[in-house]
């Protein structure tokens, strides 16, 4: 039976969320906050993909690992890997795309990379960022250069692809820090 007119219906928070954005946009920070607020597990795709010594997981193995993650009843998956997007998006209820201005992302990324390099912070599976990589002109080694060159898809391309490939999911594009900060509470309220 439908609730009477004027009676609010209960909003159910989503439990399967994909988070995308350029390197340094704040994906990890948002994903941690979402997983905490919603009480679900968080998976960082970089942590699955980059094995010890920065060895890349073979695509078939990577897909099998991600398939296991998204079969769970609740999760937050963060990362931009095209080779597993179909798996993640097929089960996602919400796809969040962080689309902050490039200057903001570069400032955040540079600060993060320098701090991680100086502290020798372990990222995943014993891997570390290094100042040598930060000075490299190879975008495969230099995360700042990679992010600079790959920032643009998060403005139109990724949201458009998400809407087409996952019409069942709500696509949220967050274009400023205030929207990013408000996202965990907003989704916990079921405010889609």
What is the compact description of this entry?
The protein has helices at residues 27-38, 45-49, 59-70, 82-91, 102-119, 131-135, 143-149, 157-165, 177-188; strands spanning 16-21, 41-44, 50-51, 55-56, 75-78, 94-98, 170-174. By secondary structure, it is an alpha/beta fold. The chain has a domain at 16-101 and 152-188: Rossmann fold (3-Layer(aba) Sandwich), CATH 3.40.50.300.
Characterization of the model:
- The chain is of the alpha/beta class and 192 residues long.
- It has a domain at 16-101 and 152-188: 3-Layer(aba) Sandwich (Rossmann fold).
- Helix content is 47%, strand content 15%.
- The chain is built from 9 helices and 7 strands.
- Strands 2-5-1-6-7 form a 5-stranded parallel sheet, with helices on both faces. It has a two-stranded antiparallel ribbon with strand order 3-4.
- Helix 1 (27-38) packs parallel to helix 9 and helix 5 packs antiparallel against helix 7.
- The protein is globular and about 60 Å long.
- 33% of the residues are buried.
What's the arrangement of secondary structure elements?
Elements: E1 16-21, H1 27-38, E2 41-44, H2 45-49, E3 50-51, E4 55-56, H3 59-70, E5 75-78, H4 82-91, E6 94-98, H5 102-119, H6 131-135, H7 143-149, H8 157-165, E7 170-174, H9 177-188
Parallel strand pairs: 1-5, 1-6, 2-5, 6-7
Antiparallel strand pairs: 3-4
Helix pairs in contact: 1-9, 3-4, 5-7
Quaternary assembly: single chain
State Rg. Answer: 18 Å
From the N-terminal CA to the C-terminal CA, the straight-line distance is: 23 Å
- Main sheet makeup: 5 strands, parallel
| Largest sheet strand order | 2-5-1-6-7
- Regarding CATH, which class of the domain at 16-101 and 152-188? Alpha Beta
| Mean residue pLDDT | 87
Number of helices: 9
Q: Assign the CATH topology of the domain at 16-101 and 152-188.
A: Rossmann fold
Order of helices and strands: EHEHEEHEHEHHHHEH
Helix fraction, binned, reads: 40-55%
Q: In percent, how much strand structure appears in the residues?
A: 5-15%
Report the uncertain regions: none
Category from helices, strands and their pairing: alpha/beta
């Amino acid at each position: 039976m439908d609730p009477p007119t004027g009676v609010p219906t209960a909003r159910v928070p989503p439990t399967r969320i994909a988070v995308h954005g350029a390197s340094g946009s704040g994906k990890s920070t948002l994903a941690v906050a979402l997983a905490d607020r919603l009480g679900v597990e968080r998976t960082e795709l970089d942590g699955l993909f980059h094995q010890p010594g920065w060895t890349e997981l073979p695509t078939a193995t990577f897909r099998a690992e991600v398939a296991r993650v998204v079969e769970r009843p609740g999760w937050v998956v963060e990362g931009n890997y095209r080779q597993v997007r179909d798996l993640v998006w097929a089960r996602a209820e919400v796809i969040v795309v962080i689309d902050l201005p490039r200057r903001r992302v570069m400032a955040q990324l540079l600060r993060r990379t320098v701090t991680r390099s100086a502290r020798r912070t372990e990222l995943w599976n014993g891997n570390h960022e290094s100042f040598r990589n930060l000075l490299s002109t190879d975008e495969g080694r230099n995360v700042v250069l990679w992010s600079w060159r790959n920032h643009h898809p998060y403005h139109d391309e990724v949201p458009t692809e998400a809407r087409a490939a996952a019409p069942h999911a709500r696509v949220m594009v967050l274009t400023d820090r205030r929207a990013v900060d408000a996202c965990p509470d907003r989704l916990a309220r079921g405010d889609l």
